[in-house]
């Protein structure tokens, strides 16, 4: 047993079956009763409903914790405890990330994994009221609803486990506690460490303001800090003795601007000058550009990223300065999976949305007044399910480290209406909804859709096979790329640097 | 009588004689005894020597206070008290600057003014030891030796007053307590407020690492913060909705770089990006350039400054942003005065420098080890007086608000060796020397040279006249310019903004 | 009759019916025999086939003329003569363009117009051989196949006129001879002059390498020369006296690069520095940027264009230079029309493509060897018709002044395979095919599709109405925009400037 | 004997005495009569006056030829013939420059060389009239007066030779016919080829608008064409496939602008964009910057030039383009020589200037009206000699390949008033004066001053020694630098490229 690997509990070097399950595996193997689908779904949905109040409360506790990436200690511990209590076996500290964990149940194939996140965002602290009112000004808040994400995924896992138990369903179910999605690329290190290497299908969801299947998409992103080092000099007395790091940063910026015309249309490159000199009468010996580059296509981004590195090097040549590139983050785009999307869409439609009650409506209408939108969406949105969308690289999109998982395992996701329709993520409006009943109701929709799809996968080998075939097709001729250097450890303090 | 003016004590609207002296003027008027020059100088030098220990102690107290610009309350109070005790009448709070003051003695013409400064510099706290060792890390320190400057000027004033007293010399002697020379342009507001309007000649000095007359020179400087305001937007989702303030700052920078070829050779323009965006995934709606422009010629600088304003405006046009320019500082270059320089040189040579004792030498040699210089100057430098230098606009130079005084009144200055030879101003090495006997001895050299020159002016009307004639010649066809807007108040909190 | 208008022959100030038809109108009015559609189409196609050889010869003559924009005198004259000979009445010199003309036949509504172009491109002279071999090096050539365009459109018009004649079809048929499509915006001035004001539907086509209906699309474009004027000076002796026009051009370029991030994704802005100084030892007093901006949306382009003007102004402010903007060209994007597209698709499919004979295949295969392509398309392409494509703003596209017509009249177009599959327009390969049987066969396909669609429009008022209704829908809330100043005359010498 | 060297006629591999003189040397060796200085000077001046009309006519012929650099065939031939006729032995085609030659007379040490130039400037054709009136518009003209330079230097050489002859003065006298001073760096290749390796002192002069000794100065200059190569692409259809050479040129320009702050104040860098793209709808695959860099100090320029190369390389990295640097020109600054300057000043004062006659004055006053100057200098200037100026690196200056000679041999020069006072070089006004009596009279002043100084050198070994000693001092610790690559041949067609 390799003590150095936190995954040793789960994986032996040679066999695919996690070691810790080996002794008990015989108890359940291959005894799944063939319950008719409709009845199975109904029973599973009841299991979700039964446990929903408990996990809604868990979601609220995590909302109260509001911990930033890689420091989600209390949130991670709470989820681990609850999953242990529900009968899962937990391996903590995966991939050198103290708050990453894997909770597993069952044995054998298929291995179905559900992703859970729980990190908050800086500065988005907010009461559960429809006007801007932070609990503590400047403090973190769950403006992306990851409190719901982690708890809802766990609710799905627990309900599914109960059903597996009851019906002796074979196969392995896992919950992946994945830290630091927001800029910390937590899952990338887990992928690198092999945490997903025996998984057959990954299910995930994300809070949103409508109900939909999310089949591929998002933007691949790479980010880093480009720090230039020059030579300080008195800018009035002897500017000729100085070598300006700020000049380098500005010329790098210029270079990036000139590059824009010559990259594919939907590429995004955006940056700030995070350090631009200390005093105007000193030639700056230190300057820094904090930059992100994105593309709907991971492979395109690889080329773009290499070009940007060359621009930075060019800037050093132009200015007699030196460069270091640090804090590299990287999320891949999400690979679509059409058979999984079809199955997911069917299940989401079966679950349906939810109708807001009078109090929720009052809250929502009040909150919508704070939007600066021409056409505020109807509150009925929460009660509808969008038709399955075709992947469109031109749609505005954000980024997530779920992408990196999806380049390694067939992956499908859901979006559910946890935010008041019209809300954008990363806003106080999202924080507010994520802490109260609207968010919690949307979370249950997600848990149900995940549980149903998980059950389909556990009981229908052809669906798993179709997912794998499509994965091969979608990734044919392309290979997974992450800009994160092989020797870079998870940036545990990226939020405080 | 204009009640709004803090100068009302000194000036009536119509008469040139300060009111507060009117009652006592008759006592001394026009009774100056015609003592032969050599004897007069000797006697005056003795008076300086007598009071030197007291004012050296004052300089040390101010060194201990180490107060930043416009907040030199204790330093200013101490100087005021001591000058009052010596028989000067003091008017405090001049030109809306709480720590500015004028201490006056005597009556009638000529009016000879001596300038005193007393502000410290941020971050230069240092023990009086020859290795880097702050009293309090990050705290202010007298790295430009203004503790010596203010005290030494007062020593000159007090000795001269005693001599005037003893010999019934007519004329008016003033000490100007001038705050915030370091970036606060304190004297500019005093000039604007008319504080120098009846002065015939101004004498000043500055700590340095050698003994010399300073006849004109230094660079005119203008500085300001250019703040651009744009429209924030999610940089990945909707960059087309953003208008980037950082783009404006960068284009302003580019514009300035392209400008460099087309301004006179010794123009200096240097800047930092003091605010360059907050997060790379948001189009920055705020960015700031903190910029200084300098020239040996005030008039050239005016054109340069107008051009820079146009560049900033051009950057807003290019980016759909808006601009505000704030925190404008401005120092003029120093107008030379050749007759005064000749007189000053003669006196400085009469005073001579000073020879370091064994302890001072040990300290100095130790401290020189911290210089990164190829040719460290000899310690004998402190005992020498440099020949009168011709003004050379190509010499490296700094800036001072003494320049603004010099565009309005004939002005001459001294540099004396208060720092260990080879020291640069604005360093911990300068702070160290300014707090111990080396600085204090150099200070006495300055006080003596000022006192002698003051006496020459008080007793030789032809010198005053020659100074005035030369002033007219030097400024013919050019007019005083300050970039500080007429309605801008002294930026009392510029150090904390 | 307003003598100043070249359109006076066609339009009276008050009535919609062209005056020149008024006397003969009674002969045909409203006597159209209701021939069954299938028979009608078959007969009309025969009429096209009958006259095809003649017009193929005309196309070859224009190919031999190879005249540049606004100087297509021989080409225009030839087409006018032939149309007159076929019974059309011709008005020449429309819209102050000497080579523009309108050929009309028939009377009353609907007014159906067919567009014909005939300008060549500089430098694309080429023999009808499959390897690069200019007739005259550097001379113009029909690299966009407009010789086919103009002749094919006339073939359609003449055949349709014969059918109208034979069957007493009411309505007005027009052929618009439109010069200088390649960068001269010839149609924009015709639109401005009202030449299309009574037209109900416009039909057009363009040579291509496959057969398809072209429903909307292309990029709106604006182009202009930005000329900066500065002050020359010896760059070594007195650069401070110079004001660099080149600096202005470079800063305008920089400004444009910074702008790219903040315009919609499919905007295109591209430029050259057409004048960048004469000698490196002189500060340039003249510099010029020749710039084009494009967008799938005319309205977006308007905003972009205004921004670019501001960037140019900003560059003058930054450099103390002045600016003039000249040679403004402007083409709008093409407004789609779905009912027309459906009708056009049906007809194109009815016509079908054509199969190359052995000689053509030999030529084509030889020519395809000169392509640097990974996947050269099959020669069967000429025999296929593409399914109706949905408008996609993200598709690569070029620009045409047909766009300006389409913002004023419902418009539909065809592309037919006149070039060897895989050819790009504006190449010698295109010139070669346009001068021989491949191009001429593709031209007949276009003529037939136009003729059939024209007949549909002349005989089916509901199709005309549907086209008009859809036009209203497609342009609702948006208005036609051209960047060409109202007082700018057609730039008759734009090719020689 | 190395047959490959055009200098073989002059130099053996081992002995310093030119071979061609070896046979006749004995005739004159060491028999110089010791004529008293005053008489010697008077006699020599008469010799100059005697031959002046002839050489003035030669100067006019060369003015008529007006040949550009490296193509001065007729001018060079004429001078060679005349010098041969006067008894000089001529070696043509020196240093692979067809129009370079060395004319020699005498034997042994010292070797005194006089420089002659004869190239014209493009576009400066002008009649000898005081208003702009070209002989042939656009044709070359002697706007720098090199027709006078070459003829005047020959006049000095011939007169001195006659004096040497008459008085049996030992030593070697040479005339160097040096082509392509204007941008062709003709002398640099001659220096490189060893043409000056046995010379003791070099004398030269240059037409100007006043009479003065020129002791050092001028700016070292390096120039080159930076050509960037990218990848063309349709700028609207596929800009992402293009790599823009223009972007590289613009970023190189930006880099140079940012560099300006960090080079010594009197550095000059100036450039044009000589190729900036062909059509705005094509991503430019070719762009070119034509750049010159200058400094009063050759050594500074070396660093600057290396930096500029790095900027160009940085621009390629930033844009994915490639670079070639071609057409490198390089002139060094002129090393001062104080003993020679003192001797030269004495002689120039002895010669004095000349007073314009009435016709010349009329012409001059008329021509001065075309100046745009505030203070036009007096016509008396031609009759005055300026006091010896101290070298001032801050004075505006131009560049010359005399500099390269001066880094290898002690060198001194004269400026004489050949142009109407107030004229700038490289103007039609200079061309006009260089073709008529004003220029021709100034030329004789130069010839006399050179002849006298040459005689001093030939007869006073201590002056030669002092010149050599000072040369060592002035160049101590610095070494000659040329940016011209060792394998670059003279760019014989640089004017037509």
Summarize the structure in words:
4 copies of one chain form a homotetramer. The longest helix of chain A has 29 residues, at 37-65. In chain A, the strands form 2 sheets. Chain A has a 7-stranded mixed β-sheet with strand order 1-2-4-3-5-11-6. Chain A has a 4-stranded antiparallel β-sheet with strand order 8-9-7-10. The first copy, chain A, is globular, with a radius of gyration of 24 Å. Chain A has helices spanning 25-28, 37-65, 73-85, 146-167, 186-192, 245-259, 298-319, 338-351, 358-368, 402-406, 428-434, 437-459, 461-475, and strands at 89-92, 101-107, 111-116, 171-177, 201-208, 212-214, 220-229, 268-275, 286-295, 322-331, 411-417. In chain A, α2 (37-65) runs antiparallel to α3 (73-85) and α12 crosses α13 (461-475). In chain A, 38% of the residues lie in helices and 16% in strands. In chain A, β3 (111-116), α4 (146-167) and β4 (171-177) form a beta-alpha-beta unit. Chain A has 13 helices and 11 strands. With 497 residues, chain A is of the alpha/beta class. The A-B interface holds A 219, 221, 223, 234-239, 246, 249-250, 253-254, 268, 270-281, 283-284, 287, 290-292, 294, 396-399, 424 and B 219, 221, 223, 234-239, 246, 249-250, 253-254, 268, 270-281, 283-284, 287, 290-292, 294, 396-399, 424.
């Amino acid at each position: 047993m390799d003590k150095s690997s936190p995954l040793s509990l789960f994986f032996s070097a040679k066999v695919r079956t996690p070691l810790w399950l080996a002794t008990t595996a015989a108890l359940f193997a291959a005894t799944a009763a063939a319950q008719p689908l409709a009845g199975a779904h109904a029973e599973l949905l009841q299991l979700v409903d039964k446990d929903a109040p408990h996990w809604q409360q868990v979601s609220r506790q995590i909302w109260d914790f509001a911990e930033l990436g890689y420091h989600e200690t209390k949130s991670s511990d709470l989820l681990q405890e609850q999953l242990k209590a529900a009968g899962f076996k937990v391996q903590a500290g995966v991939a050198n990330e103290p708050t990453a964990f894997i909770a597993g149940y069952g044995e054998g194939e298929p291995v179905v994994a559900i992703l859970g996140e729980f990190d908050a965002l800086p500065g988005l602290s907010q009461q559960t009221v429809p006007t801007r009112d932070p609990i503590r000004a400047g403090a973190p808040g769950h403006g992306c609803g990851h409190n719901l994400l982690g708890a809802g995924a766990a609710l799905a896992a627990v309900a599914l486990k109960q059903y597996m138990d009851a019906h002796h369903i074979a196969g392995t179910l896992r919950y992946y506690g994945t830290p630091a999605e927001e800029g910390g690329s937590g899952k990338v290190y887990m992928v690198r460490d092999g945490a997903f290497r025996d998984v057959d299908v990954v299910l995930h969801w994300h809070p949103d303001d409508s109900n939909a299947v999310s089949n591929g998409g998002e933007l691949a992103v790479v980010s880093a800090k480009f720090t230039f080092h020059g030579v300080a000099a008195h800018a009035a007395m002897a500017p000729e003795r100085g070598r300006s790091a700020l000049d380098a940063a500005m010329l790098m910026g210029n270079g990036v601007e000139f590059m824009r015309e010559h990259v594919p249309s939907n590429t995004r490159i955006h940056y700030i000058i995070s350090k631009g000199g200390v005093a105007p009468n000193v030639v700056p010996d230190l300057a820094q550009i904090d930059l992100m580059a994105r593309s709907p296509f991971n492979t395109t981004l690889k080329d773009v990223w290499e070009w940007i590195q060359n621009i930075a090097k060019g800037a050093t040549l132009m200015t007699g300065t030196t460069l270091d590139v640090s804090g590299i983050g990287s999320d891949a785009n999400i690979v679509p999976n059409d058979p999984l999307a079809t199955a997911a869409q069917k299940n989401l439609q079966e679950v349906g949305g939810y109708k807001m009650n009078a109090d929720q409506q009052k809250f929502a209408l009040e909150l919508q007044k704070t939007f600066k939108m021409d056409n505020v969406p109807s509150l009925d949105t929460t009660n509808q399910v969008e038709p399955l969308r075709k992947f469109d690289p031109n749609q505005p999109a954000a980024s997530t480290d779920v992408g990196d998982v999806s380049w390694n395992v067939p992956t499908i996701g859901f979006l559910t209406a946890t935010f008041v329709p019209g809300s954008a993520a990363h806003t106080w409006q999202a924080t507010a909804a994520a802490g109260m009943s609207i968010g919690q109701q949307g979370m249950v929709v997600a848990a149900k859709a995940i549980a149903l799809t998980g059950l389909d996968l556990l009981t229908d080998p052809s669906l798993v096979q179709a997912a794998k075939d499509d994965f091969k097709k979608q990734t044919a001729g392309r290979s997974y790329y992450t800009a994160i250097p092989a020797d870079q450890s998870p940036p545990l303090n990226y939020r405080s640097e």
